[in-house]
Structures are given as C-alpha cells and as structure tokens.
Amino acid sequence: MAAVAAEVCVKAAVGAPDVLGDCPFSQRVLLTLEEKKIPYDTKLIDVSNKPDWFLAISPEGKVPVYKLDDGKWAPDSDVITQILEEKFPNPSLVAPQEYSSVGSKIFSSFIKFLKSKDANDGLEQALVDELHGLDEHLKQHVSGPYVNGENISAVDLSLAPKLFHLIIVLDHFKGWKVPENLTYVHAYVKLLFSRESFVKTKPAKDEYVIAGWAPKVNA
Ligand SMILES: N[C@@H](CCC(=O)N[C@@H](CS)C(=O)NCC(=O)O)C(=O)O
C-alpha cells in the first residue's frame, strides 16, 4: 500500500493565492517534513480571505495546521513539529534541552526593531545582542556548523525562516544588515538557506516576504 501523504495547511503568498507564501511557522513545518523525507501535500491558505472549511479546522484562523491520524487538525508549529518527531523519529531532529533557547529571542527582537521609530531606543542594540549570542554559541559551544553541532536539528529549522525574514525585511525597510563581524551567523545562514529543504520551501519571491510585513511596519 502506498504511504499516505501528510497534509498541512500553509500560508499562500500575499496577492498570489496559488503560490507558497511567507509564513515562517509554515515553512518550519515544511522544512521538518522535507528533512525527515515525509511525503506531504500542502493546502495554500489565503489568510486575507480564509475559506469556511479552513476556519472549521483552524478556529483561530492560523496556519500552519497539520492533519492527525484521527482526521482532526493540530495547530501551532511547536506542537506539529513535536508530533512529527514522535511519529517519524528518523532522522532525529532532537537537540539537547540546553540548546533549545539558542536564538529564541531573535525573532521578537527583530519585530521590535522593525517597528521602532526612535533610533535611540536601544532596540537595534537588543537585536544585535541576540544575534551576537547566536554567533558566540556557534563559535564556542559546538564543533559543527549547526546549533547542535554537525547535524541539523529542530532548533535550526525554527530559526532559519525567521532569519530569512529578518535579513530581507530589515534591509528593505531600514537599509539594515547583520553586522559583518558576526561571521558565524553569516556562515550559518548561508548554509541553511542553500539547503535543498530550504530552497524547496521558501517563499517564491522576496517580495512576498516584504508584502507580508508591510502592514506591520506602519501599524
Ligand atoms: N504560534 C503559531 C503562530 C502561527 C502564525 O502566527 N501564523 C500566521 C501566519 S505566519 C497566521 O496564520 N496569521 C493569520 C491570522 O492571524 O489571521 C505557530 O507557531 O504556528
């Protein structure tokens, strides 16, 4: 019997509902499916025009949602990636508990800096500090290029789409770039963004990422 493909609802591109969009949480789930070589089907959701069938399976109206064996749908990328790890343990994407928080404040720091209108409010430095923490971790704590060393793990798959958004969006809206001296971060993103799984699951165009964030920048 052929394996049944996993089903996952993910965000469609802003203004292009037939194209894979720019949700970092959706991409995280797709990256997990790709890295574990689990066959899957995606349903693209136009979050500006959510169909009723989608709202019935995702009452909060958020993507991603993943179809469970009993036909119910599970929301939230944290929950979904945990379910995938338990159901498909090989290859393992588990990282030690002490590494689970590496880089975990980068995304929220990025959003605060993006929305900041005051150059002296310390939010740029707060983001640099978080990126510096990741750089130091990659430099000092592990022997390989990933957060957990030689092999990619769930921590990298969560961080990669967020770093992708950060780089595109801060450059576009603020002309800001990750400081050159964070050499380990630069090498890390280069490696992650060139992985086959990432190339397959990233938003089709950078413009979709920019369009996704534009309403939040001036909110
Ligand atoms: N904590 C959730 C966050 C999911 C989330 O915020 N998804 C956004 C798109 S990136 C969404 O569905 N937004 C649509 C809406 O809120 O209407 C996760 O990790 O999956």
How is this structure best summarized?
With about 220 residues, the chain is α+β, with helices and mostly antiparallel strands. The protein has 2 domains: about 5-85, Glutaredoxin, CATH 3.40.30.10; about 95-215, Up-down Bundle (Glutathione S-transferase Yfyf (Class Pi), Chain A, domain 2).
How would you describe this protein?
The protein has 219 residues and is an alpha+beta fold. It folds into two domains: 82 residues, 3-Layer(aba) Sandwich (Glutaredoxin); 121 residues, Glutathione S-transferase Yfyf (Class Pi), Chain A, domain 2, CATH 1.20.1050.10. It has nine helices and five strands. Strands 1, 2, 3, 4 and 5 form a five-stranded mixed beta sheet that branches. A hairpin with a 5-residue loop joins strand 4 and strand 5. It is globular. The termini are far apart. The mean pLDDT is 95. The site of glutathione has 11 residues, from helix 3.
